[in-house]
Amino acid sequence: MCSTDLDVVNEIVRTRGHTADHAIPILQEVQKRFRYVPREAIVRIASITEMTESQLYGVATFYSQFRLEPVGDTIIKVCHGTACHVGGAKGLTEALEHKLRVKSGETTSDRKFTLTSVACVGCCSLAPVLMVADGNTYGRLDRKKAVNIVESLEGVSGAEPK
């Protein structure tokens, strides 16, 4: 992260506050700006507030909303709730892991995609389901349909997901 990025962190702290009760809003704003919470941001926040790096890491690792690693431009969430599990979510995840060459929870080397498994997306009647962070939800999937969705997101297939 360069010094101008740290200027952004300085501004966030200036507008959000310097005390421990402002840790969550500060980290939320940092993540909003950078799409994750960079280590350098935590170091800077600790150096200009009343919080320690340990306190900030404690907050960032306690709440699942925070990411400490960069994510891809597109986050693909495969539902593994009960209905999706029974409907074949494991197979969807395996097919996407193979297609993207990453394991669930990882980001592709070009940072285009992050593949993740989630507990439930609330679309049980459409199981198994995949959600894309752009807000689209795809249901009644099989391995091939899931791969077709990713290919359409990559612009490879040139077609809409089926």
Question: Can you tell me about this structure?
Answer:
With 162 residues, this protein is α+β, with helices and mostly antiparallel strands. The protein folds into two domains: 3-62, no CATH class; 74-154, Glutaredoxin (3-Layer(aba) Sandwich), CATH 3.40.30. The chain contains seven helices and four strands, in the order ααααβααβββα. It has helices at 3-16, 23-34, 39-48, 53-62, 82-87, 89-100, 143-154; strands at residues 74-79, 113-118, 130-132, 137-138. It has a four-stranded mixed beta sheet with strand order 2-1-3-4, covered by helices on one side. β3 and β4 form a beta hairpin. It is elongated, with a radius of gyration of 19 Å. The chain starts with a helix and ends in an 8-residue tail after the last helix. Residues 156-162 have low confidence and may be disordered.
The helix/strand class is alpha+beta
CA radius of gyration is 19 Å
Distance between the termini: 40 Å
CATH superfamily of the largest domain: Glutaredoxin
Helix content: 40-55%
Main sheet, how many strands, which sense, barrel?
4 strands, mixed
Shape, per Cα inertia axes? elongated
> What is the CATH domain class of the largest domain?
Alpha Beta
Look up the CATH topology of the largest domain: Glutaredoxin
What does the average pLDDT come to?
Answer: 91
| Strand segment tally | 4
Largest sheet, order of strands side by side? 2-1-3-4
Order of helices and strands: HHHHEHHEEEH
Which spans of ≥5 residues are poorly predicted at pLDDT below 50?
156-162
Second CATH tier, the architecture of the largest domain: 3-Layer(aba) Sandwich
Strand content range: 5-15%
How many distinct helices?
7
Total count of domains: 2
